[in-house]
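Exercise 7. Predict the structure of HTH luxR-type domain-containing protein from Chryseobacterium rhizosphaerae.
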Amino acid sequence: MTIFSVIDNQAPHTLLDQTFKGELDPKMSLEKYRHVAFIFSVLQNSLAVLTDLKSKEKYVYHGGLSLYFGIAEEKSSSIQSSVGADSILSLIHPDDLRTRHLLELKLFHFIKDKNSKDRLDFHIILGIRVLNKDQQYIPIELKIFFGSSTDSIQLILYQYSFSSGMNHTSVPVIINSSNGQILSDHNFNTKKILTKREVEILKEISVGRASKEISQRLFISKNTVDRHRQNIMEKLRVKSALEACHIANIMGII
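Solution. The predicted structure, encoded as tokens:
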């Protein structure tokens, strides 16, 4: 399963591959983030999923939305392994999963070099379509927040809620909540995600060349090509070279 069907992991590979040595700011501890997720589920009838990338655990809180879509009983909660798929993922329209994937990728690479305080200012808002019990797609709103430790992005909070339609944006956005700025594509230099050599190899892959042929054309070893292929897939958070080519093409990398 992939982002083009059902994402089988709530936490992207790039985020999981970080080195987690630092600690969360005591002012925003894990318990406080869990309380925020719980409050979302109660006050907004949301489905809130808090993923701790360091411990590889998920804290799931169900509001009325979960009951409506038949995911779980309202006002229930659970702790799960972060490698397990959330029930709602299989209900989201595949195109919306792809959009979410691209936005998370852009935001992660945008904030990963910022200080831990500034990382908290940014979040994602997008409209997604979710299948209800009658197999009809219902529009809901998804907000994604990143929680930061001193050296990494440790927490991701996903809030799924019904949209009023009054303040729901028709296009997905990344917002700086400290000043209300909506970030546009010019804020993200996606070409920096991959190195020059990785782009070179991805272009070769995109025209159907295998690792051995690429190594001969670029005068490097096959093992080096394979290592670059793996790095490319990790950076773009995909599970195949084909997906990497597709995502890179959409983002203007190749």
